[in-house]
Specification:
Blueprint lengths: L12 E5 L4 H12 L3 E6 L11 E4 L5 H15 L4 E4 L16 H29 L2 E6 L13 H21 L4 E8 L5 H14 L3 H11 L11 H12 L10 E4 L8
Parallel strand pairs: 1-2, 1-4, 2-3, 4-5, 5-6, 6-7
Helix pairs in contact: 1-7, 2-3, 3-4, 5-6
């Protein structure tokens, strides 16, 4: 089969949640370069948002936010071909199980698990009706390698997302819709860079020392560095493309070798 990599997504409509910064922005740019019409969501529109990418302001942690996104996209474009459930965050306090409230758990699960579920529910009927579509859930290696002292609810929500993604694939793959999971390790986004600077400042060490301290907390990264957002975006771009037409129901880990088992 012959593919034109530059325009392989021409004519496709794609949504990337959390697509205004970090890995989400890199994914949106990658899909746009492949010819897709790209929509991104976030709570607030950044000042440097590209004009060729459709932005929708929405809080996806709330049901009305996901409903707004579904209704606006279907009203303007009629359907969605590619859904990248990238949005995710962990804002709970460190300190382990005892410091976490019901609100911490509920807010984290709303953002990292139920928001993708609601968006899938909104767009899947159309995909199934056309007999084609791609849904990619961005999870995390914390689903298998949780950091219990700092991100316990996040890790639990991502584990749920991985399981849900596999179950959903079993249901809709026979109907023409591919469902996949991408689980990155540590990614060097601007937020990660700021975290490293804070660690270096508080410890009195260098940026390099702070970087290695985070890698050590993860049990080490054999590749020797975090991933760049563009590296994760390249994997997502491939999985969303016709080149990956036979791939569904699978989790793809991109972590530089962090997870110590096969």
């Amino acid at each position: 089969m012959d593919f034109n990599f530059e325009n392989e997504l021409s004519g496709k409509i794609a949504l990337v949640t959390g697509g205004t910064k970090g890995t989400g922005k890199a994914i949106a740019d990658r899909l746009s370069k492949a010819g897709a019409t790209v929509i991104v969501t976030a709570r607030n529109k950044p000042e440097d948002q590209p004009g060729h990418i459709h932005f929708i302001a929405a809080d996806l942690s709330r049901p009305e936010g996901t409903q707004k996104v579904v209704e606006e996209i279907l009203a303007e474009y009629g359907h969605l071909d590619i859904l990248i459930n990238n949005m995710g965050s962990s804002e709970t306090p460190g300190g382990g199980f005892t410091v976490l409230s019901d609100h911490d758990w509920e807010a984290t699960i709303q953002t990292n698990l139920l928001a993708p579920v609601r968006l899938d529910r909104g767009f899947l009927p159309g995909m199934v009706g056309r007999g084609e579509g791609v849904i990619i859930h961005i999870a995390s290696i914390q689903a298998r390698l949780p950091l219990y002292d700092s991100t316990l609810p996040y890790a639990a929500a991502k584990a749920g997302l991985v399981n849900y993604s596999k179950s959903l694939s079993n249901e809709v793959s026979p109907k023409g819709v591919r469902v996949l999971t991408v689980s990155p390790g540590w990614i060097m986004t601007s937020a990660s860079g700021r975290m490293i600077e804070r660690i270096a400042d508080s410890s009195g060490g260098t940026i390099e020392q702070a970087t290695h301290s985070v890698m050590n907390a993860l049990g080490g990264i054999p590749f020797g560095r975090p991933a760049w957002p563009e590296e994760v975006a390249e994997l997502v771009g491939f999985l969303a493309s016709p080149r990956a037409a036979y791939l569904t129901g699978t989790e793809y880990v991109i972590d530089g070798g962090t997870i110590p088992t096969i």
